[in-house]
Amino acid sequence: MHLEIITPDKKIFEGEVYAASFPGADGFFQVLNDHAPLISLLKDGVVEYKSKEVTQQVTITGGVVEVLKNKVVLLADGVVG
Q1: Is pLDDT at 35 greater than 90 in this prediction?
Q2: Reduced to 3 states, what is the DSSP secondary structure of residue 61?
Q3: What share of the chain is helix, strand, coil (3-state, %, to 5)?
Q4: CA–CA separation, 12 vs 69, rounded Å?
Q5: φ, ψ of residue 7 in degrees (nearest 5)
Q6: H helices within the chain, ranges in order?
Q7: More confident residue, 33 or 81
Q8: Of 25, 21, 27, which is closest to residue 67 (Cα–Cα)?
Q9: Which of 11, 14, 35, 59 could form a disulfide with 80 if both were Cys (CB 3.0 to 4.6 A apart)?
């Protein structure tokens, strides 16, 4: 699936991943290929995404994530570090 992580200032990441975990307002959740459509608020925490080659993490200060047809767009309020 295609993942984009965007802040108001810049694009943090764009690429193909097979799994992504998010700090949802009601707890952590994971998105895999062919996930049902959703929109969720995110709280401060770590977003982890995995490609075939590597697992990466980014710490966000809240935001919103949309999942639709194997495209995941994370609009983060900001990133730490």
Answers
A1: yes
A2: strand
A3: 0, 70, 30
A4: 21
A5: -115, 170
A6: none
A7: 33
A8: 21
A9: 59
